[in-house]
Design brief:
Chains A, B: This is Dihydrolipoyl dehydrogenase. The structure is a homodimer of 457-residue chains. Chain A has 457 residues and is α/β, with parallel strands linked by helices. Helix content of chain A is 30%, strand content 27%. In chain A, the strands form seven sheets. A six-stranded mixed beta sheet of chain A has the order 4-2-1-8-22-21, covered by helices on one side. In chain A, a hairpin with a 2-residue loop joins strand 5 (115-120) and strand 6. At the A-B interface, helix 3, helix 4, strand 3, helix 5 and helix 9 of A face helix 3, helix 4, strand 3, helix 5 and helix 9 of B.
């Protein structure tokens, strides 16, 4: 089959979902066009997973020193040069952009820089440089990503009140920072700037921090953040957040309390850019169809209309890069006829890399569930790192592991192991049979897997 | 069954193997006596795994700062207080000793502090405080551990030439340190004292460092150690190592070169304390029966004679704490009649926690084997940690994973995951199906698992 005869796949969005969809489609023999309006790599590479991990990793010595200094075992000072750290980040991202572009080219993917202006049956209209190109397709994969949500009175204004992207690009740490949103983004960024010497205030309207996690995980999050000196508060309603006349971020809470800071970050959720002209007319449907908060609804094969797939953040299933990659790979294979069954990826791990670290896969324990658990305080590695808060917990269903979570030192590094165990629904006997290396932080997970089973209150 | 009627199990040695054997035996209803001449926890807890990890973890900020400082992203200085670090170590070890003793007591294990002076049929003679107690047994588990090897001219003298225990107890870092032995102990201790400002010279007679590992792993070990400023040399024969008249350690190499240092560590291998009077007469046999280098030979049920088991280091199978635990647990269950098949623990991981970190499970790739691999330099986490040397490698047999190794940043934390994959002999399709969290150092293992298969030269 020559390229002109090949089935034509158009992928919109070059984040993890779209990029992997394009490469997978090309490997499967499709004629692939990838449309991206901005930078390759999407939110993950440019304003999400990678920049946050870069900032956490480059400043890790600050946290390691602080933990040991509390015990008076180590003294000294560590001074990160944020401008240099950002310059290196730019260099690394730029190298990654080049490598991605080369790989697309080598795979025969046509890359079009432009904005999806509209859709018609089997044609995508892409606007670029004042012109519109009509790109025909047999199958379309929308990998549109997501945008930060806002609400009236709490909205980035480009002055002191900002979204994630500019906050991750600061070349000088602000003296103080307000963060609205106690999810993964808020928790990681609070740790980053805390390490850089910023006075951080974090608030969330939800009754607890990390509201998507096990409630006992949330307790450890609050405990560790406050112990580290972050003013972290849950159950706090924000009336307004604006830039005041002095250029400061000024947050007014429901009770009347006012907090000011040099800068503020709004990180209160994500929604999909669903306003694509023609998308609904092609049969696409939307979930939670409220203004600015909708996602693209998908069926069990990730299609929102015949031949039109939506993958990654924009379908609202799991807003994580590796979920997008997994979905993009499946959708391209499905479009190529290599998959026919429903999308069934197994469990998708979620990790937080700040302080504390969190890992969660599969079911979260509910009252009445059978659980077993172990604390990090008994782990000699956690003791040596002087960071012993937290625990690992197993949720059992019918004698098999249905969910694993851990919060504490190095918990994020347990994510893959935990995913394998949950994916295979290990029995207690399987957990006993695996020889864990000693010593290791994983041994807290082992202690939980082998711990006394009890019913969760 | 009352205790007086229960089968009597005597366990000699309270390291990981003996301790777990005693607890397992008690849980299985045996009347257990545990004999230990020194401290609970054996080499692992007192002079091995745990103290090295304590010293590595407490000094980690030094390494984290150094990595970022090379890139001029972070400045400052980190000053570990070795005396304070050792004081905390003592406190942690002491707390662990108490916790272990309490757990033994709660389990109904009788703990006898004394030395195994001799064996006769169904009786152990234990010397303690000038007296000898005769302890009858139906089954005996020898968990005798191992001792450091030496050879003529290269032997700790208690002055400047030392074994592991005193080197791990230094309260002041020596200005310079010679280490003979390029295995896990030598590599970890060289990194510990390098971080503490000591000038380290490490030599090994083997043609490469980490001689038990994949030869390409050894190359990375040499590269990283030398880059860090450690004078690490393989293929070097030591003629003699003595304390000279100035109290310095003086090492003379085969070519005539002389190296002096404030202190020296001899870490050139381990052997079992096999010289137990009466042991051979009971039918025990010995492997590699050369003076000072023998181990106790065991059959497929870990018995060296009927009813006499040898577990852990002293049987020479795998000199690692978690191997000892696994064997001790099996032997106690076998003695209690709960196991009848051969000891078959699945793969035993081996990890190095210094610089670089190493993880290895299962087969090591040989020329002609099918392998796939991936470098850490492409991993965004390794990039962010400014520590990108190394790689992960898979050895495939009949389309299934038979071995995994990795050397590089965070490699030791991959040990459990790798063990699960090797234990289950994953196919490529299984590797593809597992969703790894992004970003993560594990993704280098994933890239190796999904990498191009080729034949190893």
């Amino acid at each position: 089959m020559t390229s002109s005869q090949a089935k034509r796949l158009v992928v919109v969005g070059a984040g993890p979902g779209g990029y992997d969809a394009a490469l997978t489609g090309a490997a499967a023999g499709l004629a692939v066009t990838l449309v991206e309006r901005g930078k390759l790599g999407g939110t993950c590479l440019n304003w999400g997973c990678i920049p946050t991990k870069h900032l956490l990793a480059t400043t890790q010595a600050v946290a390691a020193l602080a933990d040991q200094a509390k015990q008076k075992l180590v003294a000294g000072e560590v001074r990160p040069d944020l401008a240099a750290i950002q310059a290196k980040k730019k260099k690394l991202l730029s190298a990654t952009h080049s490598a991605m572009a080369k790989r697309l080219e080598a795979a025969g993917v046509r890359l079009v820089t432009g904005n999806l202006a509209g859709l018609e049956q089997n044609v995508a209209h892409v606007a670029a440089g004042g012109k519109t190109e009509d790109i025909p397709f047999d199958a379309l994969i929308l990998a549109l990503g997501s945008r930060a949500a806002a609400f009236p009175g709490v909205k980035p204004d480009g002055k002191a009140v900002l979204g994630v992207a500019p906050v991750l690009d600061f070349t000088e740490a602000p003296e103080s920072l307000i963060i609205i949103g106690g999810g993964a983004i808020g928790i990681e960024i609070s740790e980053i700037y805390h390490r850089l010497g910023t006075k951080v205030t974090l608030v969330d309207a939800a009754p607890r921090l990390a509201p998507a996690e096990d409630p006992d995980v949330s307790k450890v999050v609050a405990q560790v953040m406050r112990r580290n000196g972050i003013d972290a508060r849950a159950g706090v309603k924000v009336e307004s957040l604006v830039t005041d006349e002095d250029g400061l971020a000024r947050m007014t809470l429901a009770g009347g309390e006012v907090v000011t800071a040099a800068k503020a970050l709004v990180a209160i959720g994500r929604f999909a850019p669903t306003a694509v002209p023609g998308l609904a007319e092609l049969g696409a449907t939307f979930a939670n169809p409220s203004p600015n908060r909708a996602f693209i609804a998908t069926d069990e094969t990730l299609q929102t209309a015949p031949g039109i797939y939506a993958v990654g953040d924009c379908n609202g299933r799991v807003l994580l890069a590796h979920a997008a990659s997994s979905q993009g790979t499946y959708a391209a294979r499905h479009a190529a006829g290599l998959e026919s069954g429903p999308y069934a990826p197994g469990p998708i791990p979620g990790c937080y890399y700040g302080a504390p670290e969190i890992m969660r896969v599969g079911a979260i324990a509910q009252p009445g569930d059978t659980v077993s658990e172990a604390p990090f305080v008994a782990n000699p590695m956690a003791q040596a790192y002087a960071d012993t808060a937290g625990f690992a917990r197993v949720t059992w269903k019918d004698g098999k592991v249905a969910g694993l979570t851990a919060v504490g030192h190095g918990a994020s590094a347990m994510g893959t192991l935990a995913t394998a165990i949950v994916a295979q629904s290990w029995t207690r006997a399987q957990c006993e049979a695996l020889v864990f290396p000693h010593p290791g932080l994983d041994e807290t997970l082992r202690a939980a897997l082998l711990g006394e089973m009890k019913t969760k209150d």
